[in-house]
Design goal:
Layout (H helix, E strand, L loop, with lengths): L5 E3 L4 E3 L1 H45 L5 H37 L6 H22 L1
C-alpha cells in the first residue's frame, strides 16, 4: 500500500502496478511456504507421537507364553496410563497447531488430514486395546 499506483516524475508518469503485483505475489508465496513448513513440522510431530503409541501397541499385541511374561505384561499395563498422560500435552499441542493452520484456511492433504485425526484417536485406541 505504500507503493503508489503511479509516480509523477515531472515529464514522465511511471506506472508502479507491476512492482506492486510482484511484491504482492512474493509475499503470498512466502506466506504459503511458511504455512507448508509449519504443516510439515506438525505432521512430523504427529508421526513421532504415533511411533511412541505404536511401540505400546506392539507390546500389547504380544501374547505372553509364561507366567513371568504374564506378570511383565500386567506391570506394563499399569504403566500405560502414565505414558498416555505424558503424551497428552504433545497431542494437544499438535491438534492446536492443526487448528491454527485451519484458521488460516490452509488446505490439508489427505496425509495431513489423516495424521491429524489419527493423532486425536491414539489415546482412545490404546485405551480400547488395554480394555480388551
Amino acid at each position: 500500500q505504500s507503493i503508489p499506483h503511479q509516480a509523477n516524475l515531472g515529464i514522465c508518469l511511471v506506472s508502479c502496478e507491476a512492482i506492486r503485483r510482484e511484491l504482492s505475489d512474493k509475499h503470498t508465496l512466502i506466506a504459503t511456504r511458511e504455512l507448508e513448513t509449519y504443516c510439515r513440522i506438525t505432521r512430523e510431530r504427529c508421526l513421532s507421537i504415533e511411533r511412541d503409541f505404536n511401540s505400546i501397541r506392539v507390546t500389547l499385541q504380544r501374547t505372553p507364553e509364561t507366567i513371568e511374561g504374564l506378570v511383565e505384561m500386567r506391570e506394563h499395563l499399569a504403566t500405560i496410563p502414565k505414558v498416555v498422560a505424558d503424551q497428552t500435552p504433545a497431542i494437544e499441542e499438535a491438534l492446536s497447531q492443526f487448528a491454527l493452520l485451519d484458521s488460516f484456511g490452509y488446505r490439508f492433504t489427505k496425509d495431513d488430514f489423516g495424521a491429524r485425526w489419527d493423532t486425536f484417536a491414539l489415546p482412545k485406541s490404546i485405551g480400547d486395546q488395554v480394555a480388551s
